[in-house]
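Researcher: I'd like a structural prediction for the single chain below. Treat it as a standalone chain; there are no partners to consider.
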Amino acid sequence: MTEGLKWIGQHAFDSSAAPGMLGGISMTAMRGVPVRELLLRLGADEEEISSGMPYRSFHQARDAPCMYGACGEWAYVLEDRGSCTWCEWFFEDEEKTRPALGEELICLNANVAVNPSYLVYAPGDGNVYLNDFGDDLMDRPHAVPGSKLATLGEGLKVAGATCPAGYTVPQWHGLLDGQEGGLRGVVWQAVSDILGIRIRQKDVEQGLLPAARLTGPYT
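Model: Treating it as a single chain, here is the predicted structure.
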């Protein structure tokens, strides 16, 4: 049985947990793409993928180690370096990871060093939307009723992940801070509930998922 993703948001500013991950986790996930393909597009080595070595046994001397797995139709990659490797090259070499038409991608980037955290979403219509946590996706011109973008935007709004009418932003943040995890916890859990992505905290924190190194543009 898997869990929602609220726990990742709750621990955004915590330290990493040996022998696995806990704080500063970012996630990149694609629907309908095999895990192996997603890893190769992110620069992982084929032999390393084939070994399936668990993260807790993985030698992390260089590059950026990740954990990976699948949940239903989704393949996902987790990194605890405070940001996503692929985001560093996204605007330099978009073809490396840019989703093709029909490919759905969600990325929740912790962006711990500079903040705010941000959400990248490609609904499969050829567009990629970059949003800060708390942004209202319903303001996007392509968020037409029935679209995947609108479904995600409406779900985030219902979950309280955008500022509700009648509240100032500080009041809204204060309201969320009264909930364990604050805005980050709300966003992570909303994405989990809307898109159906669930990952067990125990598997990640104990380093039980397989690992691979991702080769970024500056390594």
